[in-house]
Amino acid sequence: MVVDVAYISKERSDDLGHTPGSVTGILAVQGAFAEHAAMLDQLGAPWRLLRAAEDFDESIGRVILPGGESTTQGKLLRSTGLFEPIAAHIAAGKPVFGTCAGMILLARRLENDANVYFGVLDATVRRNAYGRQLGSFAAEETVRTFDAQGEPSGEIADFPLVFIRGPFVAKVGPNARVMASTRGNAVALQQGNIIATAFHPEITDDPRIHEYFLSL
Amino acid sequence: METTRNELNKNLAQMLKGGVIMDVTTPEQARIAEDAGACAVMALERIPADIRAAGGVSRMSDPAMIRGIQEAVSIPVMAKVRIGHIAEARILQAIEIDYIDESEVLSPADDVYHIDKTQFDVPFVCGAKNLGEALRRIQEGASMIRTKGEPGTGDVIQAVRHMRTMNRQIRELVSLRDDEVYEAAKQLAVPYELAKYVHDNGRLPVVNFAAGGVATPADAALMMELGAEGVFVGSGIFKSGDPAKRAAAIVQATANWQDADLLARLSADLGEAMVGINEEEIDIIMAQRGE
């Protein structure tokens, strides 16, 4: 499902509101950021694309790190100056949601890559864990959610998981909780206000994980 | 939700959006491209400018050479097959290529039929210079489209012409009454269902990149301005004076194409651009291959 044509040129939601912290900033240096924007519009949540450091102002209360190529995004995070405000946002304990490349940007360690980006998610992640594009697949699993103490708080049943040259979690650290597993590997983690999925909720028509993220 | 292979393949193109796909001929060039921030590389033995200069028949690259590039980088690796060459495509599928480009840059193997891409599990990207070609390739199973432009020239005029043509034809189709779409499909020589999709959605049902003649950060920004969802750069990078710097500048220009101050900085001191050839100086118009 390709994203609606309006999102090729849309930079922010129609109504941004006036409350500081009410807007979700979507990292928009490369990848499927428009798909997240369309999902937030469907849920009526204000958003703006983060293309340059100046886009990160006091209106931003949540951040989404979309799918794409993590090496490309990692370079552009640095050259745009967006790395620092996003790192400060995460350090302040504010909500962040990474999908696929976003999970790689959040991980503390990568099994097959020397790079570390934000390095906040207590896990070791394997890039391209299912191989090349022929290994891309779809599945359906129950996704669990956790409260601030790391105790189970709910379930999202029968959620569609779409993996595109995706990673999986090779090792889960003590601070992270497994939200979902498939084929014997952890593929979604929560650590307080950090959510990371190896799959792409933004390219499905199921908004339930986005809805949960907005409730954090 | 039933997710088909074709859906997963369209999804990979979605992940490439906003990025730059670079032609590379060696593992070293592939690493330079990856380090510069390319979202994928196109592995080929000779870049289009050299294919043009060398003349003769141009074919799929040596699988050993493609494998060398697959091992050198972690980003997706694409490679080209000749238009209509089913066997070359099967070979690339066998080495698990991430995307096949059924490309007019190589000598066509078939002057009538394109590959039935629905018979493959790996994704295909195809060139198009207008809406009719784009939708015919999609009907044959392409999960990504790029403008043809004119490869190996360093001249952006044809990519501009193809992107403008495609998007103008899309706007025209959108403006029609529902009962006029049947005739429009006939005129475009495409299936009604695809014409109807474009009429209803105002876009192609797959991601659309620009390709063929992009040589500078400004060229990349121009193509994004005209509605491209990402950019292929062929000869423009490794035919220039400082490939690493130019590659990184084109990546940043594609990501932040509206920021003119940034474009001014990125365009400065890039060294020599590829010399290029003008449209009227070309002997072979590759874009005419495969309609």
UniProtKB/TrEMBL annotation, chain B:
Family label: Belongs to the PdxS/SNZ family.
Subunit structure, as described in the record: Homohexamer and homododecamer. In the presence of PdxT, forms a dodecamer of heterodimers.
Catalytic activity, reaction form: aldehydo-D-ribose 5-phosphate + D-glyceraldehyde 3-phosphate + L-glutamine = pyridoxal 5'-phosphate + L-glutamate + phosphate + 3 H2O + H(+)
Protein name according to UniProt: Pyridoxal 5'-phosphate synthase subunit PdxS
SUPFAM superfamilies: Ribulose-phoshate binding barrel
Molecular function (Gene Ontology), one example: pyridoxal 5'-phosphate synthase (glutamine hydrolysing) activity
Cross-referenced InterPro entries: Aldolase_TIM, PdxS/SNZ, PdxS/SNZ_N, RibuloseP-bd_barrel
The UniProt record lists the keyword Lyase: yes
Lineage: Bacteria, Bacillati, Actinomycetota, Actinomycetes, Bifidobacteriales
Organism: Bifidobacterium pseudolongum subsp. globosum
Top EC group: lyase
Pfam families to which the protein is assigned, alphabetical: SOR_SNZ (PF01680)
The keyword Transferase is annotated on this UniProt entry: no
Source superkingdom: Bacteria
Residues involved in D-ribose 5-phosphate binding: 23, 152, 213, 234-235
Role, per record: Catalyzes the formation of pyridoxal 5'-phosphate from ribose 5-phosphate (RBP), glyceraldehyde 3-phosphate (G3P) and ammonia. The ammonia is provided by the PdxT subunit. Can also use ribulose 5-phosphate and dihydroxyacetone phosphate as substrates, resulting from enzyme-catalyzed isomerization of RBP and G3P, respectively.
Alphabetical UniProt keywords: Lyase, Pyridoxal phosphate, Schiff base
Protein residues bound to D-glyceraldehyde 3-phosphate: 164
Domain PdxS/SNZ N-terminal: 7-211
